[in-house]
Amino acid sequence: MEFSSKFLENAVYEVSQLPGIGKRTALRLVLHLLKQPERQTEELTTALTNLRTQISYCNNCHNISDTEICEICANPKRNKSIICIVEDIRDVMAIESTSQYQGLYHVLGGKISPMEGVGPQDLNISSLVQKLKAGGIEELIFALSSTMEGDTTNFYIYKQLEGIEIKTSTIARGISVGDELEYADEVTLGRSILNRVPFENSIKAN
Amino acid sequence: MEFSSKFLENAVYEVSQLPGIGKRTALRLVLHLLKQPERQTEELTTALTNLRTQISYCNNCHNISDTEICEICANPKRNKSIICIVEDIRDVMAIESTSQYQGLYHVLGGKISPMEGVGPQDLNISSLVQKLKAGGIEELIFALSSTMEGDTTNFYIYKQLEGIEIKTSTIARGISVGDELEYADEVTLGRSILNRVPFENSIKAN
């Protein structure tokens, strides 16, 4: 692509650095901004700058938060003896939207992934182990993605728990609600049979 | 979606104002920026601010340009007696990439679209008519999209040409190179038969 303006070329280049956005989409977005009032571009850049420079993380669970302790950790109604380990804030938001969980979270900030150069020291694992050693936690729920990286991370953390007495669990893997059995993959279907639950439980959940 | 941070919520909102980007994609993009070095967000916001505040348009053809007269209009090798009317800079870039056109352009900045509240006065039409009245232009090529808005705009401009002696043409509509006849729509196929060209022309073009 040849551009008639360095400013345009530069803006398109920077926008196309975002994941999943190619040069053509970037050009479309940038031309859209040009057609809108200047105010819109200002608001966008101010919001991004504020986010990047003023963002902070909860001292306790490492979730994104504007206060030192996030709302979830500060809520006296939450059960502080259960911790759910998740990858990032999107998983916290997803679990919160179910209204089924009343414990606290611990946000790792990623998964162990040698391919992407992410090791255990890049994640919030040591603070988790410290928290568990300090006592008062009864159950640890592993809620990472069901991928090789997720399983590796689960296993690494599990190994760190040696000598700490704590109940551990993982979220259930199974057939999605509303899905047809014949289209499910064998691994998922196999797990959902192995980990079957009493029929009364499924009635209660509805 | 409930956010744990006002900064995050604000950034996601502003990014999701861009066309074709929903809240989920916006959250993904914003979290990506948070994981990258602060420098990347700075470069992005600076590029967008520079574009929006320092962009200028060619005085002659209204194309985006860093100079008062764009490179195409300033090029002495271009044929200044032919003008090709296009909608926006993307069309200029598309035609330039074919290397088949040596004339100048006139960028309208949009199409007449009552549905979106765009009338003739919002487009660069009066400057085009002035340019044509001043003389020296032999041919005007209409190269707008083949949609109802494009046709309306073409017709509006054509009406403005009354009293001006000038040759007008539109780019050819027909079957795409490499396309199979059986999958072409009837209107396109019909036009490509009506506007058939001497066989020797198609040999020369290859």
Instruction: State Rg of chain A.
Output: 22 Å
Most extensive chain interface and residues per partner: A-B, 58 and 58 residues
Level-1 CATH class name of the largest domain in chain A: Alpha Beta
Number of domains of chain A: 2
The spatial strand order of the largest sheet of chain A comes to: 4-3-5-6
In helices, the fraction of residues of chain A equals: 40-55%
The 3D shape of chain A can be described as: globular
And the CATH topology of the largest domain in chain A? Dna Topoisomerase Vi A Subunit, Chain: A, domain 2
Could you describe the largest sheet of chain A, including whether it forms a barrel? 4 strands, parallel
Number of strands of chain A: 6
Number of helices of chain A: 9
What's the helix-strand series of chain A? HHHEEHEHEHEHEHH
Topology (elements, then pairings):
The structure is a homodimer of 206-residue chains.
Chain A: H1 6-15, H2 23-35, H3 38-54, E1 56-57, E2 64-65, H4 71-74, E3 79-86, H5 89-96, E4 103-107, H6 126-133, E5 139-142, H7 148-160, E6 167-170, H8 186-194, H9 199-205
Parallel strand pairs in A: 3-4, 3-5, 5-6
Antiparallel strand pairs in A: 1-2
Helix pairs in contact in A: 1-2
Please provide a written account of the structure.
The structure is a homodimer of 206-residue chains. The first copy, chain A, is an alpha/beta fold and 206 residues long. The first copy, chain A, has two domains: 6-54, RecR Domain 1 (Helicase, Ruva Protein, domain 3, Orthogonal Bundle), CATH 1.10.8.420; 72-171, 3-Layer(aba) Sandwich (Dna Topoisomerase Vi A Subunit, Chain: A, domain 2). Helix content of chain A is 43%, strand content 12%. Chain A contains nine helices and six strands. In chain A, the strands form two sheets. In chain A, strands 4-3-5-6 form a four-stranded parallel beta sheet. In chain A, strands 1-2 form a two-stranded antiparallel sheet. The mean pLDDT of chain A is 90. The interface between A and B is large, with 58 and 58 residues.
